[in-house]
Amino acid sequence: MRKRWGWLEATTxxxxxxxxxxxxxxxxxxxxxxxxxxxxxxxxxxxxxxRWYSCAARRLREAPYGVAGxxxxxxxxxxxxxxxxxxxxxxxxRAANRLHHPAGGRFATVAGAVFLVVLLFGGGSLVLSGITxxxxxxxxxxxxxxxxxxxxxxxxxxxxxxxxxxPSDTGYEEQRDNLTREGWTSVxxxxxxxxxxxxxxxxxxxxxxxxxxxxxxxxR
Length: 220
Hints:
Elements: E1 4-12, E2 20-24, H1 32-46, H2 51-62, E3 69-72, E4 75-82, H3 88-100, H4 105-135, E5 140-141, E6 144-145, E7 151-152, E8 170-171, H5 172-211
Antiparallel strand pairs: 1-2, 1-4, 3-4, 5-6, 7-8
Helix pairs in contact: 1-2, 4-5
């Protein structure tokens, strides 16, 4: 069975079951474009009676290709897909619930914000630590600064270390290489965390946009 499309308008209303007052088109459409055109006509016909409809009609008309809905505060108008063997009313109810009750609710929002802060703080700390190792840290031997050509003698503790490698002397250059390696590793990990946090920010912004609009491939 081929896909069908419809349009709906939904308003947050906590006095109703599900918290949404829902209206949807009686007619179904074969493509997203047909459904969007029908929704645009629905909004245009009511634009003179309500500023909500007038603003929604203007925004939908100015929306880029592929955007099939708008949202104004507690009100949403959008095109939705009607899956095979699903009644238009049931498909509309599910689509409206996704628009007005995004998965996770407040807990997911707070947890996501905390997770983002942790990522930003961790990534920034790692980058700063790595830069410090690369540019300001100087090799040390038992707390004392080393100079090029110095060798740090290993301390013998007198404790038996069966199966463990014996401590060895390390030169200035070797310690400098270790600091450089640790610095670049820290910077790399920090940049990965910062990139991940940036991706989450962009993704959350995209989620807020798609909460107000449904995107679908043309003609499907």
